[in-house]
């Protein structure tokens, strides 16, 4: 019981710290700081919020009645707002995130890596098998309208969090000889990120399908078969 009380107190501390950080950001917004410093401060704040969220998530799961333990399936079903995992085509793995990649100019996103791992966990817990590729292509295709996106430089987007989440689980490593990377963008009214992992030998087929050469009506629906 003492351990549970300590963990609940820790959750309260994290919430208070988050409120304090929000107050600091509000004060900085009125100070007119340089854009570079503002960007760094925002990413530091985002990282702190993410770490707090992940710690709270672990603490809550540790004491979930009937489940318990970080990494086990939660009692409540996953919110559909996070995304989903499916396999299609030649066994390619498709992960849909119902959000865009975060701005990570100075640091990677722990939240994004953890969310992808949990989506993969849920996919496996439902009885489906995850693929494992010795050499693979990772395609990250952001669907968004111009007005919904404020980060246009690809190197400032948090794509590294994706490869961090799949390394050792879907691929041996994320070095340049094992994993190729393609960052794509598609104009859309929906802010969605499509992540596809496929065997390196299937790269030509993937881009042929995506370009419409094979007349697939809805490429990311998963409804087509090969």
List keywords for this structure.
17% strand; globular; 226 residues; 5 helices; five-stranded mixed sheet; alpha+beta
Explain what this protein looks like in three dimensions:
The chain is of the alpha+beta class. The chain is 39% helix and 17% strand. The protein has 5 helices and 5 strands. It has helices spanning 2-29, 35-62, 110-125, 160-166, 203-211; strands spanning 83-88, 92-97, 136-144, 179-187, 192-199. Strands 1-2-5-3-4 form a 5-stranded mixed β-sheet, with helices on one face.
How would the blueprint of this fold be written?
Blueprint: H1 2-29, H2 35-62, E1 83-88, E2 92-97, H3 110-125, E3 136-144, H4 160-166, E4 179-187, E5 192-199, H5 203-211
Parallel strand pairs: 3-4
Antiparallel strand pairs: 1-2, 2-5, 3-5
Helix pairs in contact: 1-2, 3-4
What are the secondary-structure elements, in order, as H or E?
HHEEHEHEEH
Helix content: 25-40%
Proportion of strand residues: 15-25%
Distance between the termini: 55 Å
Structural class: alpha+beta
Largest sheet, order of strands side by side?
1-2-5-3-4
Number of strands: 5
Brief summary:
With 226 residues, the protein is an alpha+beta fold. Helix content is 39%, strand content 17%. The chain contains five helices and five strands.
């Amino acid at each position: 019981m003492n351990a549970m009380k300590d963990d609940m107190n820790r959750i309260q501390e994290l919430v208070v710290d988050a409120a304090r950080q929000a107050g600091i950001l509000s004060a900085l917004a009125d100070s007119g700081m340089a854009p570079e410093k503002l960007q760094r401060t925002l990413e530091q704040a985002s990282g702190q919020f993410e770490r707090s969220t992940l710690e709270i998530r672990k603490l809550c799961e540790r004491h979930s009645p009937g489940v318990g333990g970080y990494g086990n399936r939660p009692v409540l079903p996953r919110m559909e707002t996070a995304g989903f995992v499916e396999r299609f085509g030649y066994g390619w793995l498709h992960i849909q995130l119902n959000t865009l990649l975060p701005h990570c100019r100075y640091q990677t996103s722990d939240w994004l890596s953890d969310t992808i791992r949990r989506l993969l966990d849920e996919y496996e817990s439902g009885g489906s098998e995850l693929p494992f590729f010795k050499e693979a292509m990772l395609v990250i295709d952001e669907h968004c309208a111009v007005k919904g996106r404020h980060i246009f430089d690809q190197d400032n987007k948090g794509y590294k969090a994706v490869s961090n989440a799949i390394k050792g689980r879907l691929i041996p490593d994320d070095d340049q000889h094992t994993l190729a990377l393609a960052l794509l963008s598609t104009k859309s009214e929906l802010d969605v990120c499509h992540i596809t992992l496929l065997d390196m030998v299937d790269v030509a087929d993937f881009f042929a399908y995506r370009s419409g050469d094979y007349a697939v009506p809805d490429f990311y629906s998963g409804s087509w078969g090969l």
